[in-house]
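Session log. Operator J.P. requested a structure for one protein chain; no other inputs attached. Running the standard single-chain path with token output.
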Amino acid sequence: KGFRLAREVAAAHVNRAERFLRHDNADAAWTELLAAEGLNSGEPSASTLRQTLTKYGLAVIRAALEAGKPLAAVEHAERLRERGVRHPELQPLIDAAQDWFLAADTADRGDFLLASTNLERVRPRLTCPTTGLERFAADLRDRHERFRHAVSELHAAVEAQRWREAILWADEVL
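Structure written below.
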């Protein structure tokens, strides 16, 4: 009798989770799914819902990467891991997002060549359209060119002892 009751409660959690998912509230759906799984009732619909939520989560990660938001992708991937998701696509997406974020951070520190190298490791790992990555790579090339021009102008201003101009170019470099 206790097992039957646990199974009914688990089924109710799964039904509630499915309603949340239909209303695009994946976090609440995960909460309900984890509650259903915690009852260890063997409710078969919980397994199906886990697969659905996993696919949804992977789609959210791919969408974040396509939109050029690697940090959002990493954050969502970590939430999936915390929820016990194991999927062969997850780790390559995490690695791609982390390398992309590292490339952005490296570029922000002015090391554009290393950033480009880091960025090249991202492309083969992506299983989604690379629209955001291409946008970021173009921005990286533009920033690198502006940086090189500013450094050149800074050196010229210092050499000519045009200190006010040198300060402006130094600010541009930084």
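Operator note: DSSP finds eight helices and no strands in the chain.
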